Amino acid sequence: MCVRFEPSNVTEMNDWIAIGALALVGVLIPFGMMAVSYLLRPTVPETSKRATYESGEIPTGGTRIRFNIQYYMVALLFVVFDIETVLLFPWAVAYQDALAADIPLVRALGPMLLFVAILLVGLAWAWRTGAVQWARTPRQLESDRP
Amino acid sequence: MTVDVQYYVLLSMAVFCIGLFGVLTRRNALLFLMSVELMLNAANINLIAFAFYHGNLTGQLFALFTMALAAAEVAVGLGIILVLYRNFRDVDVTVPTTMRW
Amino acid sequence: MAATATGPFGFAPAIAVFPLVAFVITLVFGRHLPKKGALPGILATAGSLVVSVVMFAAVAGGGEHHTTLYEWTSGAATSETMVEGIEFTFGILIDPLSALMLVIVSLVALLVHVFSLGYMNAEGETGLRRYYAELGLFTFSMLAFVFADNLLMAFMFFELVGLCSYLLIGFWFRTESAPSAAKKAFLVTRFGDYFFLIGVVAIAATFGTVGFAGEESFVTAAETAIDDGTTLFGFDAETWVTITGLLVLGGVLGKSAQFPFHTWLPDAMEGPTTVSALIHAATMVAAGVYLVARMFGYYALSPTALAIIAFVGGFTALFAATMAVVKDDIKQVLAYSTISQYGYMMLGLGVGGYVAGVFHLMNHAFFKALLFLGAGAVIILMHHEQDMWEMGGLKDKAPVTYYTFLAGALALAGIVPFSGFWSKDEVLFDALAVGLEQPVILAAYAMGLLAVFFTGFYTFRMVFLTFHGEPRSAAAEDPHSVGWAVKVPLLALGTLATVAGFANLAPVAELLHADITFLEFWLDGKYGAVEGLTYHAYHETVAFEEGVIGSETTTMLLSAGLSLGLALAGAFTAHTLYNVPEPSRHTTKLGGAYRVLKSNYYQDEYQVWLAEGLTLPLARAADRFDQTVIDGVVNGTSTISLFGSDRVKRIQTGIVTNYAALLVGGFIGLLLVLGYLGGWFA
Amino acid sequence: MAVLELPDWMALAPALILAGTALVLFLIDSIEPHSTNRTLLSGTAVAGSLSSLAVAVWFTVAGVGATGIENYGVIDIMNGQFVVDQLALYFMIIIAVVTALVTVASYDYLQDHTYQAEYYSLVVLAATGMSMMAASNSLVTIFIALELTSLPSYALVAILKDNRGSVEAGLKYFLIGALSSAIFVYGVSLVYGATGSLQLTRIATVLESGDGAVGEMGGLLGLGILMLIGGVAFKTASVPFHFWAPEAYEGAPAPISAFLSSASKAAGFVLAFRVFTTAFPLEATTGIIGVDWTLVFAILAIVTMTLGNFAAATQENVKRMLAYSSIGHAGYVLIGLAALSADGGDLVMGAAMMHLLVYGFMNTGAFLFVGLAEYWGVGRTFEDYNGLAERAPFACGAMAVFMFSLAGVPPFSGFWSKYLLYTELINAAADNTVLLVLAAALVINSALSLYYYSRLVKALWIEEPLLDRDRLAQPTGLYAAVIAAAVMTVVLLPAFGPVADAALEAAAAVVA
Question: Where are the alpha helices (DSSP H) in D196-260?
Answer without folding.
Answer: 200-209, 218-236, 244-251, 254-259
